[in-house]
Amino acid sequence: MFVKEVICMQANGVTFEESRLQELASTKATFRDYISIMKWGITISNVLATFAGMWVSSHGHPALLAMLYTLVGTALVVAGGAALNNYYDRDIDQLMVRTSKRAVAQGKVAPGAALAIGLSMSAVGLALLFFLVDWQAAACAFVGLFVYSYLYTVWFKRHTTLNTVLGGVSGAMPPLIGWAAGSGGSLGLAAWTLFFTFFLWQPPHFLPLAMKKTEDYRNAGIPMLPVIRGFRETKRQIVIYTAAMVPVSLMLTTLHYEGWIYFIVMAVLGLIFLVRAVQGLFIPEDQDLVWANKVFRFSLVYLMALCIVLVLSVSIF
């Protein structure tokens, strides 16, 4: 009976997934559903990174109005990109436990509505940055949006094990947006040092999560590194990126944008991060997921501490 139903739907030009979405769409979307597609938790963390970049580049004295425009513009672009991601990924989101309850995947928010929200918010955010801040900040925001909502979502995520690495460009753009806004558009070596600190942080953050959700990604046909290359190679790459991140993060002090408080705090946290990463190479296989969960959680602590000490160290220095 089920097979006949599927064949009938295909004959009428309707896929099973579309039929399922139409069935679920009968449930009226709430305001919370619409808010959820913008991934505000991720948006807020990106705004904090933008603020940190702007604070450092202005040596702790950003123009208040410019800061407001920058943070609002960045929030709109990031939230818009998240909505576009929800729109495009609705097919694979239905196949993973972690994402199956997303509003677009469940059909609560219509795909067309998610697309319209994503495009409109992104456009408004980019316009705000371009006309009220500077074109360099807007350009950085556009690159981040394009990489995340198109290159990563459409191509990298579905076709290569380097998806996390290549997609990391978008996650490293917010501090660069803030830097451009706080420096009058100047993006020197210190700006790129901050960019690469955030860029190198992302594999040690997302790869442990991918290990935890390996079966989810396998079921959805997504070629995440632990799915294709296994846990051993994934842990090795976590070590490589963490080891590269630590010295890069400390360069802000040698470039005289951060003081010794920043250097000491981030050196200690970076070494702890590296030790935890290396430990993964020597633990029994049955402890891999426990280790991955610990590294993932510490990566969040590291990022929050990074944003806080970037601001405080400049203020004190």
TrEMBL record:
Q: Where in the cell is it found?
A: Cell membrane; Membrane
Pfam (any one): UbiA
Which positions, given as ranges, span the membrane? 37-57, 63-88, 109-129, 135-155, 176-201, 260-283, 295-316
Q: What is its EC number?
A: 2.5.1.141
Q: Does the keyword Endoplasmic reticulum apply?
A: no
Give the main localization category.
membrane
The protein, known as: Protoheme IX farnesyltransferase
